[in-house]
Amino acid sequence: MSTIDDIRENFALLDDWDDRYRYVIELGRMLDPMPENEHSSANKVQGCASQVWLAKHIERSSGGEPVLKYRGDSDAHIVRGLIAILLTLFSGHTPQQILATDAIAVFDEFGFREHLTPQRSNGLRAMVERIRSDARETLAAAS
Prior knowledge:
Distance between the termini: 32 Å
Number of strands: 2
Strand content: 5-15%
């Protein structure tokens, strides 16, 4: 699995947005397949122009802290790639780490603000908010 720094380095090597889009789509192709039963209304992210599902699984770290793991899928290739970047940022992290990460700033750093349609940008924000909301709920349940 790539780290966000790997993705950052690869992005820096690609000057052309067509190449960057192809790279994002390639990241989406590398997502673990999502089981059909996880394509449920409970996992569906509202506010996305395309179909998006995020399935959360809570595991415990060796110290007993909750760790949120995700699987994601979309019917749009570019969105699958955005999900892959999001999961690189968030999946396998504690709620505190998730809430301390500004995903939108990372996507802005990569230049997505200028290169995503308003609908895609809104969908991206909806995905980030879903994960942040899961982190807040997990924290509340743990206290």
